[in-house]
Automatic annotation (TrEMBL):
Descriptive protein name: Carboxymethylenebutenolidase
Start and end residues of each Dienelactone hydrolase domain: 14-228
InterPro entries: AB_hydrolase_fold, Dienelactn_hydro, Dienelactone_hydrolase-like
Signal peptide, first to last residue: none
UniProt superkingdom: Bacteria
GO molecular function, one term: hydrolase activity
Amino acid sequence: MPEINIKAADGGSFMAYVAKPKATPAPVIVVIQEIFGVNEVMRDICNDLASDGFITICPDLFWRQEPGIQITDQSEAEWARAFELFNGFDVEKGVSDLVETIKAARSIDGSNGKVGTMGFCLGGKMAYLMATRSDADCNVSYYGVGIQDLLGESAKIKNPLLMHIAALDKFVPKEAQEKILAGLKDHPQVEAHAYPGVDHAFARIGGEHYNKEAATLAHQRTAAFLKNNLS
């Protein structure tokens, strides 16, 4: 499995999965994990993006708790462990690790110097924070959790942010969705889409709530967004 090690700002280092396209130089996308670690789902997303012409890097954000976590959404025990990791996750240190990943991405072999982020679930929240706290050239947030509590940072968004919101998201209640959409609707750098009738993780292939129609539409919007901002 192709990996690199990235130095953390406060000491130590962490693994990141890497997938590369056939042709370089190319833009880099930092893929930000769900609560299940850098598992097969995340690696498949990286590989698909690489086949579309992007270098991809998916860092292990849970390394401070347990390096190399790779679990699924297929059992109660794995869900329990995932939420344990989520609840123990230090967001501030995660932001720092992602900033270091973006730095590494700009100089990785084959990079054209442009870097975007794309995150799912927990990663969707972190992609929003990359929009407010990093110099990433663009950011994509899929069903990010807790963003309604971070709207005070929206004035710091300088580069384009694309958001995909599941209308029936059990982890982002309707009131939270309304707050997010109202708080960001006039921001010139934010494009937000709500997908009716779908639940959290509607784009996770093989997941309980996977919805092909919504996932395809979100993918099309994401592809156009990345082409416009990273090519």
